[in-house]
Amino acid sequence: MTIHGSQICQDKNENPEISEIDEKKVKSLGLDLQRIRHHQQRILKAFRAKINRKIPIEKPCLISNGGLLPWAETKNFIEKQNSNKKYETWSKNHLVTCIPGAGAGSRYFLSLIKFQVEFSKNSKEKILDQYWIDLFPFLPSFIEHCEKFFRYNPQYFTKKELEIFTSTIEKAYVYATFFIDTYSMRPKMSIPATVEGDSFLFLKIQEQQHLIPCLANIIIVADGHKNSCENDLEKIKNILNIENSWFVYEQTKDLSTIRFLQNGNPYEDENEQYSCVSAGHGELLRLFSKFSEDIPQAEALHIRNIDNIIGTSKESKNNLNTLGEFFFHIQKILEKVRHWLGSTTSINDTLNDKILVHTLCELKPLSQQEKNEFTPDFLTISEVYAILSLLFHWPKPEQKEALKLLREYCQKPLSVMGMVRRLSGDAGGGPIFTSMVADQKIKLCLEMTHASDEQAQEFFGPNGSCTHFNPVLVFFELQKNFENQKGNKVDFRKLFDEHFWLLTQREFKGKKVCYHETVLYELIGNSSSTNLIFVEAPRSLFKPHKSIQDGFNHDRTYYEFPHTEPETKTF
After folding, report:
1. What percentage of the chain reaches a pLDDT higher than 70?
2. I need a surface site. Which of 243, 379, 488, 560 has the fewest CB within 10 A?
3. Is the CB of residue 55 less than 8 Å from the CB of residue 2?
4. What is the pLDDT of residues 295-323, one digit of tens each?
5. What are phi and psi of 373, to 5 degrees?
6. 276-278 and 256-258 as β-strands: parallel, antiparallel, unpaired?
7. Element holding 444 (H helix, E strand)
8. In sequence order, which residues have a C-beta less than 8 Å from that of residue 131 and are 6 or more positions away?
């Protein structure tokens, strides 16, 4: 839970001494001393100054106010470029898919765990099928799913063993116990996501082979799971005859932080040692430099979660690559403008590249949703700034500052986020406008816990005014200035903005603790440090699996993968 700094400040009468961070204890956990000290200073500042860690929302990013680009207009812009082959060539040579997969499987089985706990409290005399089905309405579907699963995977239960259970609810309890015991402590990527028993990793690898042409694919796993993932990867690649490149990176402990007490002192366990905890998936940004080093041809990342299995249909492929191609065109426009700015010396210089001028003019109606009457032969610096500022929501400059600001803002990395329409039951943040950074209005992909309770309800609740949902996929620039054949890497350290961190509170071993967290999509999804575009995306690109119910009775054909009979079970 993210909380207001003043709510967790110590009692007014207390003024405890703040312990110095113990270097040996930090290093014994494999953590960076300077980062932990930095985390402590931020937390102390929030305590002492009673800083509000909530981010105020001004209004949602909507199609009607230009904060979100409509899907139809995005497709129309791409069709005008008529360069699908150029995009495919670029993506095969310069685009890398990144699949965050470090999450644990425990939350996926939370509904089964609740059922198991409640069932265990009751005697057999109280086992009434209808009562339990009313209490846990998913149980009939769960049983149906399991019986299909065990037909494909007879090594777990024989037909005779399954026939022992006469009560439907007893059977559900045995099945729930099996899945909890077998899979809940594994990484989510290794959990079966189909009745055939295919893991999320298996489906994602098969999906990547068909959906989007890439230079390479990256999987990010939890600390200590690299070897097992690489072994699974090799087995799956052999089954699917996959030849494209796959890299495995660990979200190692050095991307973690420590727990603090609510006076700012480090929490110590019974052995007087610090306690390590994840510092949030925003810390994955620290791996991006490693990606650039290991895959030097990579210009951009396509990020999509391990549990968002969208299948291999023609519709999914076309929609995904439409967003990829849109990113490609905007990146190339930025690259050409960056290249041109390298030779400009005065505010009076003009852009005379007719192809680039024409393309920039086609961007104008994309932001304004109105048609251009004509295309000029050249654009002034102020006109180039005005067109791009509509797209990226840059502040309006004074005339004499236009060239300086154009150079400065063009150097920010490009971030394109696909946002789907919010439906009833969708929980999470979304695209909003805020004025929290340097008194400028910026776009931000806001994590819901970073909003106050009142604004979370107003904008993200059942009747909230935010029409679209947190990003289902992201395209993000890794390196810039390829137009100059230089390939300058993005300095990702600059993206760890002081505004975008969460003060998170939990109870741990009977004590109230707090710690410092960051969220990836806030760090690369704010227009103060990136050139951010929110694009509407079809719901066909959003098929998350947050709980086991999301995959009930789904076989391979549900994801447009080839069907197999139980006798031909695979990995």
Report:
1. 89
2. 243
3. no
4. 999 999 999 999 999 999 999 999 999 99
5. -80, -30
6. antiparallel
7. strand 440-446
8. none
> With b meaning 16 or more CB within 10 Å and e meaning fewer, what string describes 128-140?
eeeebbeebebbe
pLDDT above 80: residue 166: no
> pLDDT-derived band of residue 157, with 50, 70 and 90 as boundaries?
confident
Which spans in 226-274 are helix H? Answer: 226-240
β-bridge mates for residue 479, sequence order: 489
Buried b (16+ CB within 10 A) or exposed e, 416-441: bbbbbebeeebeebbbbbbebbeeee
Q: Report d(CA 79, CA 322) in Å as an integer.
A: 10
How far, rounded to the nearest angstrom, does the alpha carbon of residue 459 sit from its chain's CA centroid?
A: 20
For 539, residues 6+ apart whose C-beta sits below 8 A from its C-beta are 420, 421, 423
Pair of tokens at residue 198: 């295919």
Q: Taking the model in full, what pTM does it have? A: 0.90
Residues ≥6 apart with Cβ < 8 Å to 60: 67, 430, 431, 432, 433, 459, 465, 466, 467, 468
In whole angstroms, what is the distance from residue 306 CA to residue 323 CA? Answer: 19
Show the tokens assigned to 145.
Answer: 């799913």
Mean pLDDT of 494-520: 89
Which tens digit of pLDDT belongs to each residue from 452-477?
999 999 999 988 999 998 889 999 99
Q: Which of 179, 27, 16, 18 has its CA nearest to residue 110?
A: 179
Residue with tokens 């150029």: 86
pLDDT digits (tens, 9 = 90+) for 360-416: 988 876 755 555 566 788 999 999 999 999 999 998 888 888 999 999 999 999 999
Cβ atoms within 10 A of the Cβ of 165, count? 14
Total number of residues shown for the chain? 571
* Rounded Cα distance, 539 and 508, in Å: 38
